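In response to reviewer comment 3 from the previous cycle, which asked for concrete evidence that the modeling workflow produces usable outputs, we include below a single protein chain processed end to end. The sequence was submitted unchanged, and the resulting structure tokens are shown without manual editing.
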Amino acid sequence: MSLTLALHTAAGGLLATQTALGTISDNVANANTKGYSRKIVDLETNILAGVGSGVTVSGVSRSVDEELQRDMRDETMQLYKTKAQQTFYARMQELFGAPGDNTSIAHTISSLSTALEQLSVTPERSLEQSEVIRWAQNTTQQLQDMSNTIQSLRKQADDEIHQAVIEAGQYLAEIADLNHKIVRNDVAGNDTSALEDKRDLTLNKLSEIMDITYFPRSNGEISIFTKGGAVLVDEESSGLTHNLGASVSAVTTHEEGDFSGIYVGLAVSSNDITDDLQGGKLKGLIDMRDDHLSSLQSQLDELAATLKDTLNQVHNRGVAFPGSTSMQGSRAFLDSSAQQIDFASGDTRMVIMDSSGNQVANASLSTQLTADHGAGPYTLDQVASTIDSWLDANAGGGTATFVDGKLQISLSDTSKHLAFRDQTGTAAGDDQADASINFYGNGTSVTSTESGFSSFFGLNDLFTEDMGQNIWDTNVISSNYSESGSSLSFYDNSTGSLTSLGSVPISGSLDNIASAINGANIGVRATVISEGDGQRLRITNEDGNNMLITQDFGSFASNTGFEVSNVRMASSMVVRSTIQSNPGNIARGVVRWDASLGTGGEYYVSAGDNKTSSDMANAFNSSTDFKKAGGLSDVTETIHQYASSILSLNSSNAANNDSDTIVQESLVDNLTNRNDSQKGVNLDEEMSQLILYEQAYSASARVISVIQSMFETLENAVR
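The workflow returned the following structure tokens.
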């Protein structure tokens, strides 16, 4: 080996050692820097013409276990999915409480039941009447407050989704920029490890927000996808967009387009990844907004609807002493001049009472309808006309007419009072029982059969609501449901009278049915709504008109429970205004028959009659059928038990979320510690390496010094 080669070799060793010392200095300086990975100088033998000629630096690598980092990010995605929901569950627990809490809806309903029991003991006392109304109002107000809170939390979740999308978009743009810098520096032969550290740190932050998968390319950049396969970064960032929602209600859903999608690239439906996300803060917020909170709202709506229907059915059988001077029906019909009814069985007795509850006059409604209009069925206007004429003849005057589709009855003589009594037959004094009313909703055929004349029109409801009938839906059914073949006809009052929108044959899955209805372009929108472990088919009138949907043939309606939707019930239900203003209007007794009165018997109302109040109290102690809603299955239990089930399920979900978060935090902490141990800087190790390279540097310098001396000796020898 020549002295020149020896000098070159020693100089190369000096330079390599200098690079290593610089790297150690960088490691020590960044020992506490977040995201920094320990750098390692990679040395290799320098070979010239097949002969070793010292050492060279082949590159600077990072002490990183890529698979460990990948596992850590995967678990981080699941951690932030549950963490994103913790504040929401805490808020719900704080406001809704547990079943046994005195402030819970279950306790309020129990108090209403107790008030009704006390009213049944002393039905004539105004204090007990007022207590029933107070607890009834407390119940409706609490249901409204809970609904408002749920929708407020859904709005908050959507706001946080919007901010998370903005943040994720910034991270994606940053990663794309770092990719470009890494490629340029790699081509120039520069060290890219610091840029890779920064990219890893950004990837960690991105994994907190959404689920990602990625792979490196040969040029040093990485491509990023969602686990569902959507491209997030491939040379350039695809970008994420989400539009902030203005307001949120129980009918606001992502499926119906009320909530903006999360779009990759252009904001078109094919780029919406909302339903494809599997982890991260975004997934947790989406699940909370569209699943957990929506399910809780659905359960409250089912509770409110069942409470309303159960008590209204009983209340409409009863009467406030000594009857009513006016009645306002709560049900709005599309066209009272075209829609018809008749009695499928039983009859309704019209009875006029004096101020003492004694009969002034009575008549069979079905008999009177036949006398006035012949054989049925009868239009709703004809029914009102018959009642109107009978009041004129027997109650000193009165009116019965439809206003905004609702039947309204008023007596001119306020000393007279009206009551309706359903019976098994047309004879005076027949046994009291709900009459069956055939409803010809389309004006030509029976579209439903309902129980109770007063209940059918909502003439003596305890609870009312103003939702209208512009939304219809099925029960929660399996996503595997397939309709063998039916046909639905649609009607509304868009022209001021009963208007046929058209008929649509339906078959197949709910998605197929929705497509068929939407494809008909008849002014309604059909959407498949996910709920719990199933789906609903929801149909909405696009102009907001009340509508009627009938089944022409098939069994779709009976198979799916298709009817006017209960959505919004919890936020809309109130105690009837005339009862709020005068608790004495609450029904306590019924119209009774006494064969010993008058000539052949008479009807009467007693101030001390507790039949209706007792029946309403018993309704709380009787098991009732509740439909599947949210995470609760079809059940038969008391109203109080169902309210408790809602709170128990919410408490259980909150506890499970806390437990899952604790377990996931432990797992992520463990993986993070292992990753930090792998990539972090060990100062003791760096100090030992420093001594080693310091000695190597000194040795290389000594070799150069010796060679320099040898060159001087050689030079002196040849002079």
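The first strand starts at residue 39 and ends at 48. We consider this sufficient to address the reviewer's concern, and the full set will be provided in the supplementary archive.
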